[in-house]
Structures are given as C-alpha cells and as structure tokens.
User: Which sequence fits this backbone?
C-alpha cells in the first residue's frame, strides 16, 4: 500500500488540517442532513476528476442522489431490499471488479435501516466493505445521520474506519470536527474547524467552542432501530383492528420474511400481540426462520380453529429464537466474510466449505450477545434444552431441508460456566452445519445455491421429565397427514400415519441401527404392517434415546433398563411381555427370569384418545395448509393416562400421491424377472425404464475391511455423479446411508441422489436388513428427489430375486472408474436392455423385469 500518496478532500485548508487523505482511507461523515454530506462529496469528486481518478458511485438509498449524472462517474444501483447478504455480496463483487485505486462515494448508510431495520447490520456492512476497500488502496466516502444509531454501532464504525468526521451546519456555515484520523496528528487537528471558502479555521477558543456546541444536541444512548420499531408497535395494540393489521404485516416482514404462502397463512392467524410476543423472545435481530415459523403457526391453527378441543391435550411451548442477523454478525465479527464470499462462488462452493466449517466452530460472540445468551439460560435453569437449526428456507413449501442441518441437545448440567459454554458450542455447531456436504448438495439439487440461507436458531425446552438419572418424554415421533405406506386396499391414505418411538424422537427421524420404529396407520391404529407379522420382537424398538444427567449427554439405554424403573405412568401403555422370548428362556432352563418387554404400544393405541387426537391434529393442519403436512411431536402421560402432546415442528410434506394405475406385464416364467415382491416399497404407482443397474454384492462387501467399506461408499458417489441424467437403479445389502458399515453402505444422500430407484436387499446369512423408513428424513429426501425405493427381503414368501440377471452381464466398472479398479469385484455396473419397473400401491405389487 502506498501510504505516502496524498489525496485531496477538495478543501485545501482542511487537507492541511488532517495532513491530506491517503490511499486506503475510508471517510465517514456524521451529518444532520444528507444535503450537507452531498456538499462534501461534490468537492471530493470535483478534485478527483481533476486528478483523473476512477470514480464510482453506489446508489441504493431513497434520498436524493448524492452525485448528478456524469459520464466520468460509474454508477452502480444496488437493491438493498434483496437482503443483507445479497446486497453485501453484490457490492463486494463490484468493488473487486473495479480493482485498485478507485475512488468511491456511497449513499447515506442510515437509509439502509428502511430495508434491514437494524443498526447492527449497517455496522456489519461497514466492517465487511471498509477493510476490503482499504486493501485495494481506494478512497471512499460514507455518511451516517447523527443521533439515530446506537453508540455501539458508531463505536464499531469508528473502530473500523480511518477517518470519522462530524459535519455541522450552524447559521448557514459549515463546521468539520475530526473525531478520528488514523496515523496523523497535529496540535489543532481534533478541534472543530470553520470552513470558509476553501480554508479551515480552527476553533481553539473555549468560548467559541462552547458557543458552537451549546446549540448542538448529542442525544442520549439510543436503542437499535429494530427495538424502536417494535416498541412503537406496542403502543398500537389499543388501536382499531384495521390499523393494527397494517402494523402487524410490517413487523411480519421483519420476523418472518416477504410474501409467500407461509406469510399469507401467518397473516391469517397471527395477531399483532402474537408478533410482539415472538419479538419478546428473540435474541438479536432478523428472521426467526422456517422451523420456528412452522411450529408457531401450527400451534396457532390448533388454538384458533380447534375450538378448544385440543387445549386439554397440548403442552405449552417455551421457546426462544436467535435471529438470522446473529449468524451474519458472527461471520463478520470473526473475520469470516471474505472466506464466505470465496465459498459462495461456483468454483469455491465445495472447496472452501471445510475450512469455513472449521472456523465457524471456533468463533467468538460479542459481550452484548453473551449477556443475552446468559439471561436465556437463566430462564431455562437446569432444564435440558435443544438448539435447532431454523434457516430461512427450512420447512417451507417445496424445500424441507429435512435433517440437513444439525440440532444439538444441551443436557444443561454442571456449573453455570460449563452450561453456558456447552450452549455456545451448540450454536457454533448449528452454524457450522450450513457447510455440511449434504446440505450444500441439497441446495444445488434444489436450485438454491444462489439464495441467501440465513441461519436462525430455535431454542426449545426439551419435552419430558426426569426418570431417575435419565430425562426423556414417554413417546415421540413423526406424523404425516398422508399415508403412502399402503399395503392393502382397506388402508385410508388420507387418515395419516405416525412413526412412533418410546423416549426421545431421534430414533423416529433417523434410520437407527438395529431398531425399528412403530408405524401406525391412523385409520386403524391396531393394524400391523406386513413386516410385523413374522417377528414382532425383531421389528421393534430395543433401545431408548435419553438425556443422561450423569453423563451430561444424549445416549441410549436398553429398553429393559428404562422399564425397570418408575416412568410415572402405566408401562403397559407402551410395552408388554414378549411371550415368545419367555418361552425360549424356559426351553433353555431359565425359569426364574422375567419375560423381557416388547414395545407394541397396544394399550396406547387401543385404550387412549392419543391416536384420535393425532389424527384430528394432522387433518386440521393439512386442511388449513391445503397441502399434506409433516409434524414432529412428543407426548407425556400421567398416572391416570391423561396425556399432553408437544408439537415441536410442522412443515408442508412433499408427496407423490398414488399416480395413475399401472398395467403389469404377464410373466410366463418367474425367471423372466429381475425381482418381484409384495409390499415394502415407496414411491407411488410407477412404470419406469431402467438404463443402468449398480449392484453392490453382499458377500464381497461383507469381506471388506471397515475402511474399504467407506471407500466403496465414496465410489458409489462417483458413479452417482457419472450417471446423472440416466435412469439408474442402485441395489445393495442392508441400509443405504447407514452410519454403521456392517449394516449397509455408508453413503451420504448426495452420493445416491441421481438414482431413479434404490433397493435395499435383505441377506439373512450376512446379517443385512433393510428398513422401510417411511416418515424419516431419509424418506423425505427420497420423495423430494423423486427416487423410488424398494426393500427386497430375499428368501421370504412372495419375494423373487435373481441377482444373476446382473452378475452375468458385462461389468462396466472399469469404464466408469478407470482410475480405480480394485472394487470391481464388489461393485457391478451393467447396461440393461429394456429393463422396466412396475408398482401398484393398492395391490402392493412390485415387479422389475
């Protein structure tokens, strides 16, 4: 940087006062009126034109233009209404394009409040752009209005800029009072100066200075503009309904976002008081995010349209919201914005994500935010809490982002300092999850990579109770208003279904190892899916997810351990004796052992109002949304079997529906088909051509080391990319996407997202078992990506499977992956000749030939 090259302000006398400007200087003018700033900018530009400087004007405000149209000045009109990230990214990109030694004039920054409603975000913008301009040896003029911004905002700007100048107009005369001039000093520099023509006369006399400043109001400490707006709105609750509605809609654009289907639903159900209540629970500023909005809206719908029928069954929520602006502030204050801009480019999208993720995990929060976090934790006391992602795009129509971002349990035990540090780290972890590979791939696949994905956070008190040293709800799960898991003609798809577990709901949303959730069809809760007919105990839940107070972490306990203690309600609601296991124990001579439990939820589903209430909740929410919905919930029971449901989440559910009925071909011989089964598939009625089959051979896979099994998963990802745009079927042992390689191939969803069909093959000999995971995050990914799913229980009745149809064909593995041939005996890639797959939901027939 050339720190010796002098630059003129256009006022020769003032140049002598401050020893001129330097390349790299950012100059901030505090003014009472934009017209005063305009005068200083015109003088600066006039001199810069004489010096043949490259001049750029950033126009974004509603006030009168600072500079008149001039062919020697490049004007960039940037829309601040596109949001903080979009605006900053565009300005950043344009500055980068213009390069070194350009001279800039910006509109008054105070006008950005009209779009962002937050002083803090103006400070963040300045902290991003000012250092970048400094690096490029530019000179830039900015303005802020006096007595509007908070002291902390002014302090942040003062800390970042090279020059901060107070500009006054008193009695028709201009006075400039330098407050900061970096690396320059003179005995009179920081006195106020009267500007006469081009001269600057120092006001050194105490009498003159006192007279000048006696008429200038400095004001008191001010609230952030965000708080000013909401405080004004509190005074409107006594106004007529029509007047309240306009104010409410304005506040909703600040907390919820712009016009959308979700916005319209919120407008229909939320009152001004509701919006002010949300504001009272927000930390920071900005949007509260899709997950928070969905939860609050669903509760309001049940309250208002439920006509009090749900009130006895609903548990109140106790939530806080970390505004999306906190995420940007965290990036800026930890010096991560430049890296963020690199990652946002097409070439850097995946390249810089790991570095950004790592740095997001180790940032710091400002003292102001730390104090607000501390007050929130004091509110929750030692109750366990969960820190959940609530990004702008989550849980919206068309984009669920199911399971893409992290949610972190804080058991909240230990000293206040330890509890606070765990909470902060949970927030960092959620922020870092924006750089998860699956999340990035999902955004690309949904055409969202260019959209702002501000990360708000929902903090909820965990629903449940202490059961000795374990904390958990009695039951939890996922509910879908449309049931596509139909296995006979009598199932009513529109009655909905539940994916139910005992304990915390983590097992309901994820594909768990060695366990199966309870699938409940709400038209007939006692009807068991076909998978349960053979072995009720095998296809049930054996472990319970709990929060351990002793270990201060999320963990799993055996069902028998949990049920050996008092759970504050009737255990028979959820479990009963496993008579088959008891008989086996007697046969082995263990006559003194009690029969183990099996979770079947029979009394819950047969003798309580729980299934009826859940069915009615799902039906009402779906009717209002005019769209199928997906909810997450918990429920807790008393000794008298009365229960309360805690509605944790609600979002529009992507479904394919039945589709048109499919005409099946007639098979002369079962050898003519690749596979056929009854039931155990998801994806509606289909008739799909298959161009390629990718088959992972169970025995060969089983013989690999664990490290090689992970390498096979990465190879599947490469094959997935190479077959994009083709109709490909992926077949493998056990569960795709498991985290345990002994149970299946541990691919990420992004590594199979281009497949048209995926099949999971059961292999009793090798111990591989599929899981029909309807209602899980994995299922949501399949639906959104339009992937058909089938489980092939090889060896069972009514199941035909002829893998030799693939094994006898030429393996294209080496052609697709010429650099890596060592797994060609594990993975087969074959080109099919007219293969087709047929399915029918009502008859539950599936055929591939």
Assistant:
């Amino acid at each position: 940087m050339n720190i010796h090259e002098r630059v003129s302000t256009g006022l020769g006398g003032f140049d002598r006062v401050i020893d001129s400007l330097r390349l790299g200087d950012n100059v901030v003018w505090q003014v009472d009126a934009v017209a005063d700033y305009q005068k200083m900018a015109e003088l600066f530009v006039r001199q810069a034109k004489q010096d043949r400087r490259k001049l750029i004007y950033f126009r974004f405000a509603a006030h009168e233009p600072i500079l008149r149209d001039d062919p020697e000045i490049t004007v960039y009109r940037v829309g601040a209404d596109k949001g903080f990230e979009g605006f900053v990214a565009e300005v950043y990109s344009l500055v980068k394009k213009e390069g070194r030694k350009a001279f800039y004039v910006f509109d008054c920054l105070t006008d950005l409040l009209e779009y962002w409603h937050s002083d803090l975000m103006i400070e963040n913008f300045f902290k991003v752009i000012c250092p970048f301009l400094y690096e490029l040896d530019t000179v830039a003029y900015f303005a802020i209005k006096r007595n509007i911004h908070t002291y902390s905002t002014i302090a942040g700007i003062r800390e970042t800029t090279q020059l901060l100048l107070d500009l006054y107009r008193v009695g028709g005369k201009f006075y400039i009072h330098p407050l900061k001039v970096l690396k320059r000093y003179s005995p009179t520099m920081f006195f106020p100066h009267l500007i006469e023509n081009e001269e600057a006369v120092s006001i050194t006399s105490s009498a003159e200075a006192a007279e000048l400043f006696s008429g200038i109001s400095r004001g008191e400490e001010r609230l952030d503009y965000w708080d000013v707006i909401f405080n004004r709105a509190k005074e409107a609750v006594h106004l007529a309904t029509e007047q309240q509605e306009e104010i409410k809609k304005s506040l909703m654009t600040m907390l919820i976002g712009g016009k959308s289907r979700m916005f319209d639903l919120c407008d229909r159900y939320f009152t001004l008081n509701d919006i002010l209540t949300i504001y009272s629970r927000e930390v920071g500023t900005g949007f509260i995010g899709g997950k928070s909005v969905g939860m609050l809206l669903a509760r309001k719908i049940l309250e208002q349209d439920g006509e009090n029928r749900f009130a006895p069954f609903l548990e109140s929520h106790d939530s806080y919201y970390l505004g999306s602006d906190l995420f940007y502030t965290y990036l800026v204050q930890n010096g991560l914005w430049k890296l963020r801009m690199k990652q946002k480019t097409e070439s850097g999208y995946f390249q810089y994500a790991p570095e950004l993720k790592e740095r997001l995990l180790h940032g710091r929060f400002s003292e102001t935010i730390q104090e607000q976090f501390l007050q929130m934790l004091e509110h929750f006391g030692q109750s366990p809490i969960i820190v959940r992602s609530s990004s702008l795009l989550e849980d919206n129509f068309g984009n669920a982002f199911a399971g893409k971002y992290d949610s972190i349990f804080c058991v909240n035990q230990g000293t206040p300092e330890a509890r606070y540090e765990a909470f902060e780290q949970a927030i960092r972890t959620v922020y870092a999850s924006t750089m998860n590979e699956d999340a990035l791939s999902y955004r690309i696949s949904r055409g969202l990579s260019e959209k702002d994905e501000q990360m708000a956070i929902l903090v909820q008190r965990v629903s449940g109770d202490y059961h000795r040293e374990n904390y958990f709800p009695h039951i939890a799960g996922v509910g879908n208003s449309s049931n596509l898991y139909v296995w006979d003609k009598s199932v009513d798809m529109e009655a909905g279904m539940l994916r139910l577990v005992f304990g915390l709901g983590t097992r309901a949303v994820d594909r768990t190892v060695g366990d199966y959730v309870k699938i409940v069809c709400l038209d007939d809760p006692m009807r068991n899916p076909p998978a349960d007919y053979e072995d009720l105990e095998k296809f049930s839940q054996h472990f319970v997810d709990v929060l351990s107070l002793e270990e201060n972490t999320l963990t799993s306990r055996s069902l028998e351990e949990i049920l050996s203690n008092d759970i504050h309600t009737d255990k028979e609601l959820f479990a009963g004796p496993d008579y088959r296991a008891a008989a086996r124990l007697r046969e082995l001579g263990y006559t003194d052992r009690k029969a183990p439990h099996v979770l079947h939820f029979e009394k819950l589903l047969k003798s309580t109002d729980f299934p009826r209430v859940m069915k009615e909740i799902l039906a009402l929410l779906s009717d209002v949304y005019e769209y199928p919905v997906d909810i997450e919930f918990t429920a807790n029971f008393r000794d008298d079997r009365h229960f309360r449901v805690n509605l944790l989440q609600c979002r529009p559910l992507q479904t394919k529906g039945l589709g048109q009925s499919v005409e099946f071909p007639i098979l002369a011989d079962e050898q003519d088909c690749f596979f056929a089964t009854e039931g155990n598939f998801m994806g509606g009625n289909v008739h799909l051509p298959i161009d390629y089959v990718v088959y992972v051979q169970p025995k060969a896979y089983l013989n690999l080391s664990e490290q090689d099994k992970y390498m096979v998963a990465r190879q599947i990802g490469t094959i997935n990319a190479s077959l994009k745009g083709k109709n490909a079927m992926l077949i493998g042992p056990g569960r795709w996407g498991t985290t345990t390689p002994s149970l299946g191939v541990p691919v990420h969803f992004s590594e199979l997202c281009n497949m048209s069909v995926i099949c999971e093959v059961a292999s009793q000999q090798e111990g591989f078992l599929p899981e029909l995971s309807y209602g899980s995050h994995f299922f949501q990914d399949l639906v959104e990506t339009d992937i058909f799913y089938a489980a092939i229980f090889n060896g069972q009745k009514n199941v035909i499977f002829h893998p030799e149809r693939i094994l006898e064909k030429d393996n294209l593995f080496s052609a697709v992956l010429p650099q890596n041939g060592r797994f060609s005996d594990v993975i087969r890639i074959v080109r099919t000749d007219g293969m087709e797959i047929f399915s029918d939901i009502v008859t539950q027939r599936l055929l591939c030939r």
In short: The chain has 29 helices and 36 strands. The first strand starts at residue 6 and ends at 7.
